[in-house]
Each structure stands twice: as structure tokens, then as C-alpha cells.
Amino acid sequence: MQSLNGTVGVAVNSISGYAAINKTNVSGSSITVTALMDGDATVRAYAITISGANAIGIVIAIAIIESDNRALIDTTGSSIIGGAISVLAGGESGGYDSKAYVDVKTATLAASTVALNVGLTINRAGNRAIVQGSSGSMNASGLIITARGISQADTLIQGVNAGLIAIAMSVGIALLNSTQEAILQGGASYTLGALTVRSYQNTDQTDDYDAVANIFAGGGGLLSATAFITVATANATGIASAGAASLTVTGEIIIESYGRSNAGVIIQKANIAGVSVGIMVGIAYAKGTFGAYLGSDSAVINTAGVTIYTEYTGYAKADINPSTGGFNVNLVAISGNVGVAEVNTIAHAGIRGTGSVSSTKKISV
Questions:
Q1: Is 360 exposed, middle or buried, given 0-12, 13-18 or 19+ CB atoms closer than 10 A?
Q2: Predicted local distance difference test score (pLDDT) of residue 326
Q3: pLDDT digit string, tens, across residues 134-168
Q4: Could you tell me which of 58, 61, 85 has the C-alpha nearest to residue 73?
Q5: What is the rounded CA–CA span in Å between residue 79 and residue 190?
Q6: What is the pLDDT of residues 288-327, one digit of tens each?
């Protein structure tokens, strides 16, 4: 008797959200432009394959999300006059959340078993607060530009494969590409009492990892052959910058970028077999680009104090068959385990461009 069970689950979510004042004259005591977004792509695939002789179980789950959230003021050809003006992508407390999640649970039981499990999450996340214009003007007692939010890619595979001859392969991949930007740019004229530009890239995240691939597998047989592969990449960009052509601030300019990029892979295996052949490969890669900048090639900036600051963390971990969750009991065992964790982070804070910056008070970078 032979049993074949195949399950495929796919979720694709592409969303865009815009809140804007676009090339329009606006006057008010207080002006706020806020763009909020909560978007997910989730796939849960559960399968059980049982047969007296031969059983083949195949599960493939894919979750993809692509999001673009923007809060925008474009001054081109217009005049914006206000007391306090705020442009907030994700709000002040982090109202932008983008997550791709795959959950695979399988069991294959027979005299001879073959199990293939594949989980893939892809998250391309963009959250931007932008004030721009090729012309026009803005006059305000204060301008706040903030981009704040979290994004994740999470793949979880749990499988049991048992038989006299048990062959299992699981591949878990989590890919995250996330951008947070808070930007003042363009050729307009800005006269402000104070300017604050801040970017928060995943700083409100409560989980350990922004991108994580996790495999837990159990089973065995007289002959057991297993291959488990996990890959997680977190690529995060967080930029805060101000570089308008004409910018006069009677108070202080504050430009700050806060961010993190964490990636992790976890493989836990519980295996009992007479002869066991096993390969486990885990690769975690965390890349980050974080920057806080003042100025541009054409900017003429006058102010009464400048603070430019960047703070970040980058972390990658490959946890292969940890003693807390994995064990093996075998008469003969052939195994090869490879774990790779790499962090590549670039951070900048500074004044850039060939324009000019003049301050009557302290400049702190």
C-alpha cells in the first residue's frame, strides 16, 4: 500500500497606503499627516500521511508581503503655514506593522517514508515620512518628521517522520528587506521654529529576531536520512535626513536614526535510528544601513544648534541542534552540521554635501 499526500499553501499580499498634502495651500494652527498600516501574509499548512507500506508527504508553504506606507507633504507651487506640523509614517508610537509568517506542521508514518517540507517567507517593507517640493514654502513654529514601525519574516517547520526507512528533508527560508525613512528634501523654502527628524527601524520589536527560520524535526527508523536547511536574512535600512535648498530654523535641528537588524536560524532534531545520516545547515545574515544626515549639495541651512545621532544593533545567530531541544540515539551515525552567522552593518551620522550649514549654537554629531 502506498500513500501520497501533497499540500501547497501560498499567500501574497501587496498593499500601499498614502496620507498626503500634495501641492496644495494649507494654513492651520496645527497640521498633522499620519499614515498607519498593519499588514500580514500568513500561511499555515498541516498534513498527516499514514500508510502501511510506503508514504510520501510533501508540504510547500509560501508567504509574501510587499508594503509601502507613506506620509507626505509636497510643497511644490504652494504655501504651507502652521503652528506645529507633524508628518508621521507609523505614528508617534509605531503604527506600522508588516509581517510574513509560515507555519508548517507535518507527520509521515509508514514502513518506508519520504517527507519534504518547504517553508518560505518574503517581506519587502517600506515606511516613509517625507516632506519635499521643487518649489513653494513652509512656515511653522515646529516641524516633526517621523518614520516608525516594525517588520518581520518568520518561518516555522515542525515535522515527524518515522518508518523502517525514514527519509526527511526540510527547508526553511525567511527573507526580510525593510526600509524606514524620515526625510526633508527638495528645492522649497522652509522657515521653522524647530525641526526634528527621526527614524525608528524595528526598535519596537519584542521578538528576538526580525528574520528567523526555525525547524524542529523528530522521528527515526532502522535507517534514517535527514537534511535540514535554514536561511534567514534581515536587511534593514533606517535613514533620517534634512537637506532642503533653503532651511532656516530659529531653534534647534535634531536628526536621529535608531535601528536594528537581527537574523536567526534554529534547527532542533530528535532522532532515534539504527543507522543515521544527517546534514544540518543554518545560515543567518543580518545587514543594516543606518544614517542621520544634515545637508545636501544645494542646501543653505541656518539654525541655532544641531544634534545628529545614530544608534543601532546588529545581531545574527545560527543555533544548530541545541542541547536544550535536540537529541540523537543511534547505533551508527554520520552527520555534518554547518552553522554560519554574519553581521554586516554600516552606520553614519554627519553633515554632508557641498552646501552650507551655519549655526549660532553648538553642533553635536
A1: exposed
A2: 43
A3: 999 999 999 999 999 999 999 999 887 766 677 78
A4: 85
A5: 10
A6: 999 999 998 888 999 999 999 999 999 999 998 753 344 4
CA 58 to chain centre: 29
pLDDT for residue 4: 66
Count of residues in the chain:
365
Instruction: Determine contact, residues 302/247, Cβ cutoff 8 Å.
Output: yes
pLDDT of residue 330 exceeding 70 = no
Greatest Cα pair distance in the chain: 85
Contacts of 323 (CB under 8 A, 6+ apart): none
Q: What is the 3-state secondary structure (H, E, C) of the chain?
A: CEEEEEEEEEEEEEEEEEEEEECCCEEEEEEEEEECEEEEEEEEEEEEEECCCEEEEEEEEEEEEEEEEEEEEECCCCEEEEEEEEEEECCCCCCEEEEEEEEEEEEEECCEEEEEEEEEEEEEEEEEEEEECCCCEEEEEEEEEEEEEEEEEEEEEEEEEECCEEEEEEEEEEEEEEEEEEEECCCCEEEECCEEEEEEECCCCCCCCCEEEEEEEEEEEEEEEEEEEEEEEEEEEEEEEECCCEEEECCCEEEEEEEEEEEEEEEEEEEEEEEEEEEEEEEEEEEEEEEEEECCCCCEEEECCEEEEEEEEEEEEEEECCCCCCEEEEEEEEEEEEEEEEEEEEEEEEECCCCEEEECCCEEC
CA-CA distance, 210 to 216, in Å (whole number)?
A: 19
Distance CA 149, CA 178 (A): 10
Residue 342 and residue 233 in contact, taking contact as beta carbons nearer than 8 Å: no
Q: What confidence category does residue 218 fall into, taking pLDDT thresholds of 50, 70 and 90?
A: confident
Q: Distance between CA atoms of 202 and 215, rounded to whole angstroms?
A: 24
Q: Across residues 115-140, what is the average pLDDT?
A: 95
